[in-house]
Design a protein that fits this description.
The protein is of the alpha+beta class. The chain contains 2 helices and 4 strands, in the order E-E-H-E-E-H. It has one domain: Gyrase A, domain 2 (2-Layer Sandwich), CATH 3.30.1360. About 40% of the residues lie in helices and about 25% in strands. The radius of gyration is 12 Å and the shape is globular.
């Protein structure tokens, strides 16, 4: 398993924090991630505090381990984040 750029493996999760200019940008990002998650039928655990979004990925139905689903979603999120810079 190759952990995607800027993600860390922590206790059976892939974890990354994203920082934006403001709350509005962070919320737009979360909305876009929600669309990707729906498309892939794989949903993140996440939190938002003002301009920061923390995303934690694991595959619950596989016993809370990192699977190919998580890697695919993390890479798609990275691609999306690149458009916000």
């Amino acid at each position: 398993m190759v952990v995607p750029d800027s993600w860390n493996e922590e206790q059976h999760y892939l974890v990354r924090e994203f920082v934006f200019a403001d709350f509005k940008a962070a919320f737009y990002f979360m909305t876009a991630v929600a669309g990707i998650a729906e498309e892939l039928h794989h949903h993140p655990d996440w939190s938002n505090s003002y301009n920061r979004v923390t995303i934690r990925l694991t595959t619950h139905d596989a016993g809370n381990v990192i699977t190919e689903k998580d890697l695919i979603l993390a890479n798609r999120i990275n691609e999306l984040f690149g458009k916000f810079k």
